[in-house]
Amino acid sequence: MFNNFRFNLAFCCSVNFRNIITIFFIGILFFCFVNLAAAIEIDIAALWNTEQYLKNPPKATFGEKKDNTLVQEVYYEGELYKGKPTRIFAYLGKPDGKGQFDGKFPAILLIHGGGGKAFANWAELWARRGYVALAMDLGGQGANAPLPDGGPNQGDTEKFRNFTIENGDYKNMWTYQSIAAILRGHALLIAQPEVAPNKIAATGISWGGYLTCILAGVDNQLQAAVPVYGCGFLHENSVWKNSTLDKMTLEQRKRWVDLFDPSSHLGRATMPILFVNGTNDFAYPLDSYQKSYSLPKGETTISITIQRPHGHIFTFKEVDVFIDSIIFKNVEQRAKPLPKVSEIKTDESGQSVSVTFESEVPVIKAELVWTQDSGEWSKRKWKSTPATIKDRTATATLPTPPPTCYYILVTDERNLPVSSPIKIL
Predict the structure, then answer these.
(1) Which of 2, 25, 326, 349 is the most buried (most CB within 10 A)?
(2) What pTM did the predictor assign?
(3) Using one digit for the tens of pLDDT, what is the confidence trace for 167-222?
(4) Separation between Cα atoms, residue 189 and residue 197, nearest integer Å
């Protein structure tokens, strides 16, 4: 019996010892795993090494200018994609003659949207406006067909698929590849002998606007940025929230938002930014838009109009004037800037609202733009009522019942609209 007791005691001690050793090693493994996970976290602010990109222009091959145009084809070195070299196709537009900055011209990056491509007519438009313009393709396409060594396509799979960080897979994502292509494009512009390197701006449309928002936060050498439609907070409200982002696991969504939603980058932007959108945009609703334009550190201007059409539209004149007014700021024939409009103030009654504005060009109209609808932003009905202008102040009376969202829009004699920040109730 005593021997049996000794055996049981020894057995129990042995089991407990083994358990302790097991727990100890599990603890060590867990500690190593946690530290490994910490080691592979990325500095979001340094996700793209912008300084290195801009110091090292990509290798490029240039075609001849097309007849009766200012545009030529160019292929330049892209990012490695799945370990293989890539090329980016673009159109490069160059003005004739001499530029206004010691004979050099300003330059602009032109970033297309979903379903778009490198647009020769966009580059031509800006070249005729006096800019060296680079309109690059961000979908692996050449002039007329997919490139055999192009980067990723621009479908939802390439934009939203699950990815990992520890093996560098995030660098194969469409957003990463696209921003890298744009930064390389910026470096290519700097390398052109006709370009004034400190006079470069960027504008993008829809998904290109989304990319412009990210670019503004990672490339502070840009002098101005204009995202048209695009914004951040896509996981909170956007056309992709229900269809794609809500279907991710919490971990996947957080990883995507941390790296690739503009809300993670816009807060570092310091250059002047013009945000252009419409009240009923199907992709980028006003609640996400409001949060986005509130993030940059630099000066922001807003232009939201009722039912602004969504498309690859290059003809919003407020975009041209905004960029000209900054790029040519110290040049005699500069464009006069867009009006500057304050936040809305409400009087004690809660019925009268007003903004103040500054403008070098006479403001000819002010209006209260409002909706009393709720629910899906793209389906809301909007109305406008005149506001009274006096001493650079625009005043209006709120409708009854109170609106769910409103802002004051001022228009100068060039017919250029500028909005106050919106109020969402």
Answers:
(1) 326
(2) 0.90
(3) 999 999 999 999 999 999 999 999 999 999 999 999 999 999 999 999 999 999 99
(4) 8
Angle of CA points 66, 103, 215, to nearest 5°: 70
Q: What is the pLDDT of residues 337-347, one digit of tens each?
A: 999 999 999 99
User: What is the distance, to the nearest Å, from the Cα of residue 195 to the centroid of all Cα atoms in its chain?
Assistant: 24
Burial class (CB in 10 A: 0-12, 13-18, 19+), 338: buried
CATH architecture of 340-424: Sandwich (2.60)
CATH number of the domain at 44-327, please? Answer: 3.40.50.1820
Cβ pair 135, 107 in contact under 8 A? no
Q: How far apart are CA 132 and CA 327, in angstroms?
A: 13
Query: How far from the centroid of its chain's Cα atoms is residue 379's Cα?
Result: 24
| Residue appearing with tokens 């602009």 | 108
| pLDDT for position 19 | 53
Residue linked to tokens 């994502």: 173
Look at residue 196 and give its three-state secondary structure: strand
Q: Which residues touch 267 (CB under 8 Å, ≥6 apart)? A: 217, 295, 296, 297
H or E element: which one contains 340? strand 340-341
Contact present, 229 and 262 (Cβ < 8 Å): no
Q: Name the band, by pLDDT with cuts 50, 70 and 90, for residue 8.
A: very low
Reply yes or no on whether the pLDDT at 10 is more than 60.
no
Burial class of residue 13 in the structure, from the number of CB atoms within 10 Å of its CB (0-12 exposed, 13-18 middle, 19+ buried): exposed
Amino acid at 137: D
**Residue 247 has what DSSP assignment?**
G
- Residue of 424, 413, 412, 425 whose CA lies nearest to 303: 412
